[in-house]
Specification:
The chain is of the alpha/beta class. Helix content is 38%, strand content 17%. It has 10 helices and 13 strands. A 7-stranded parallel sheet has the order 3-2-1-4-5-6-11, sandwiched between helices. Strands 7-10 form a two-stranded parallel sheet. Helix 2 packs across helix 7. It is globular and about 55 Å long. The N and C termini lie far apart (48 Å). The protein binds nicotinamide-adenine-dinucleotide and uridine-5'-diphosphate (2 copies). The site of one uridine-5'-diphosphate has 16 residues, from helix 6 and strand 8.
Length: 321
C-alpha cells in the first residue's frame, strides 16, 4: 500500500552537501529516492548512513551523459558549487550545467516528470540592485573565472524555461543563496567552512579584501524545506524564486562571530580579493513567503553552532588538510 502512494524521486548531485540532506528529508517523508552522482565533489560518506534504507538507491553516473531511468520527480542539483571547485575544471562546469540540464530535461520530457533546477544567486553576478528581487536581470561578466558557473547556470535557466514553453514540461527554478551547515566540504574554500576550520585550529582567519563585502547565509534545513515546498507547489509556480536567508552580514563580522563562538585564539589575516567577487548579496524573499509560505527559521548564530559541532567532530575523527 505504501508503495502506491510513494513518489519515485531522482536527486542528481545527491551525494553532495545539499543533495545528501535532500535525500534524507525525502526518505523521511516516505518517498523513494534515486541518488545519482559521479562523486566529483560529493562523497559516499555523505550518504553512507542511507545505503541500508530500503527505499534508497545510489547510481554512479555523470549527468553530462544521457540517463534512462523511471521517476516521477527530478531535483537537478549536480554541479560543483564552491568557487574553488567549479573553477578547477571550468569546461566541465559549463558542460554539467548545459549538457547535464539538457539530459535531465530530456528525461523529464520523456517521462512527463516534474523537474526542479538548483539555480543560484550567482545569476545576479555582482549585483547593482540591493537586495536582489527575481525580476533583476543581473550584472555578469561572461569571460571571467566565475563565468563558467554564472553563465552555465543562466543558460540552464534558459533551457528550463524553453522546455517549459516548447514542451509544456513542469519546471521549478530555485535561486539558491549562500547555504551552510553540516556536511559542507571541508576543503571547498567556502567562507564558512574555511573560517570554522581555521578558528578550530587557531590558525589565521583569511579575510579576502577589506572584509566589507556582505553575504546572507541560510541554514541547510531551511533551504531543504524551501526546495521541497517549491517542488510540491502548484504547477503554475515555476519560479525563478529566491531561496535564502535575508540576514546580511559582512565577511569581517562573520570572522569575528566565528572566533567568538569557537573561543579561538585566531587572528584575522587580510588577503587579496578574488576576481569578480560580488560586493553585496542579499535575497528578497517576498515571493517565497507569498507563494510557498516559506521563511527561514534558523538564526545565523544557531546554525553556526551546529556547523561548528560538525567540524569539531570531523577533526576529532582525524580529518587533516
Ligand atoms: P556540492 O559540490 O556539495 O554538490 C554537488 C554534487 O554534484 C556533488 O555530489 C558532485 O559530486 C555532483 N556532481 C557534480 N558534477 C556531476 C555530474 N556531472 N554528474 C553527476 N553528479 C555530479 O554542492 P552543493 O553545495 O550541495 O550544491 C548543490 C547545488 O546547489 C549545485 O547545483 C549548486 O550550484 C547549487 N547551489 C548551492 C549553493 C550553496 O550555497 N551551497 C548556493 C547556490 C546554488
Ligand atoms: N535523454 C535522457 N534520458 C531520457 C530522454 C532523453 O538522458 O530518458 C537525453 C538525450 O540524450 C537527449 C536529451 O536528453 O539528447 C534531450 O532530449 P530531447 O528529447 O529534448 O531531445 P532529442 O532527443 O530530440 O535530442
Ligand atoms: N571569503 C573570505 N575568506 C575565505 C573564503 C571566502 O574572505 O577564506 C570571502 C569571499 O571573498 C566572498 C565571501 O567570503 O566575498 C563568500 O565566499 P564563498 O566562496 O563562500 O561564496 P560566494 O563567493 O560564492 O558567495
Amino acid at each position: 500500500m505504501k508503495e502506491l502512494l510513494q513518489k519515485r524521486i531522482l536527486v542528481t548531485g545527491g551525494a553532495g552537501f545539499l543533495g545528501s540532506h535532500l535525500c534524507e528529508h525525502l526518505l523521511r517523508k516516505g518517498e523513494e529516492v534515486l541518488c545519482v552522482d559521479n562523486f566529483y565533489t560529493g562523497t559516499k560518506r555523505n550518504i553512507a548512513h542511507l545505503l541500508d534504507e530500503p527505499y534508497f538507491e545510489l547510481l554512479r553516473h555523470d549527468i553530462t551523459f544521457p540517463l534512462y531511468v523511471e521517476v516521477d520527480e527530478i531535483y537537478n542539483l549536480a554541479c560543483p558549487a564552491s568557487p574553488v571547485h567549479y573553477q578547477n575544471d571550468p569546461v566541465q562546469t559549463t558542460k554539467v550545467n548545459v549538457h547535464g540540464s539538457i539530459n535531465m530535461l530530456g528525461l523529464a520530457k520523456r517521462l512527463r516528470a516534474k523537474i526542479l533546477q538548483a539555480s543560484t544567486s550567482e545569476v545576479y553576478g555582482d549585483p547593482t540592485i540591493h537586495p536582489q528581487p527575481e525580476t533583476y536581470w543581473g550584472n555578469v561578466n561572461c569571460i571571467g573565472p566565475r563565468s563558467c558557473y554564472d553563465e552555465g547556470k543562466r543558460c540552464a535557466e534558459t533551457l528550463f524555461f524553453d522546455y517549459h514553453r516548447q514542451y509544456k514540461i513542469r519546471i521549478k527554478v530555485a535561486r539558491i543563496f549562500n547555504t551552510y551547515g553540516p556536511r559542507m566540504h571541508p576543503n571547498d574554500g567556502r567562507v564558512i567552512s574555511n573560517f570554522i576550520l581555521q578558528a578550530l585550529r587557531n590558525e589565521p582567519i583569511t579575510v579576502y579584501g577589506d572584509g566589507l563585502q556582505t553575504r546572507s547565509f541560510c541554514y541547510v534545513d531551511d533551504m531543504i524545506e524551501g526546495l521541497i515546498r517549491l517542488m510540491d507547489s502548484p504547477d503554475e509556480i515555476t519560479g525563478p524564486i529566491n531561496l535564502g536567508n535575508p540576514e546580511e552580514i559582512s565577511i569581517l563580522e562573520l570572522a569575528e562571530k566565528i572566533i567568538e563562538l569557537t573561543g579561538s585564539r585566531s587572528k584575522i589575516l587580510f588577503k587579496s580579493p578574488p576576481v569578480d567577487d560580488p560586493k553585496h548579496r542579499q535575497p528578497l524573499i517576498d515571493l517565497a513567503k507569498e507563494k510557498l509560505g516559506w521563511i527561514p527559521k534558523t538564526p545565523l548564530t544557531e546554525g553556526l553552532k551546529k556547523t561548528i559541532q560538525y567540524f569539531e567532530e570531523l577533526l576529532r575523527r582525524g580529518y587533516s588538510h
